[in-house]
Description:
The protein is an alpha/beta fold and 189 residues long. It has helices at residues 13-23, 37-48, 53-72, 86-92, 98-108, 124-132, 144-160, 174-188; strands spanning 2-6, 28-31, 80-83, 116-121, 165-169.
Amino acid sequence: MYVVLEGIDTSGKSTQIQSLKQKFPNAIFTKEPGGTQVGLELREIALHRQISPLCRTFLFLADRAEHFERIILPHNDKLIISDRSLFSGIAYADNIDEELLLKMNQYAIHCHIPHLVILLELDKAELRQRLSQKIPDRIEECGVEKLLYIQARIKKFIKKLNCPCVCISSSESKERITELITKKIKELT
């Protein structure tokens, strides 16, 4: 079963991945971008080099295709839990026609969508508070409104691809979020 944790920056995905490693020690944990060696190199270029937005989109698509071929496909009989997926890839890349972007992402993963998406959602006040407590990276510097726009796009594309999804408020306690995610995964496995 292929489960992904989605959400904008500071939503708590990384924290939950660490907690879920304790709950599901036999699962395969991965991430996009950067779940493979090639993906790590592509991620480094995409996030830290001065490149055009279109080039960045193609690097993330290349990462997604490599990730699917090397991680998702060979382990499709196991529980795979991924930090992000095509939904973030589409949502963050708002520089290309949506339908074309959707088709390119589907092509990269052979139209194999996750079995379940856990979307960690932030409201405006919580996002603002979390961003104020850290030094923002390149993406977080875009600001609250842009990140909320991206969150709405993630939800839009999950719905558009008819992917099963559970939305959880990131304002819940870390323990409660882990409990909700664990329960949902166990219901499906």
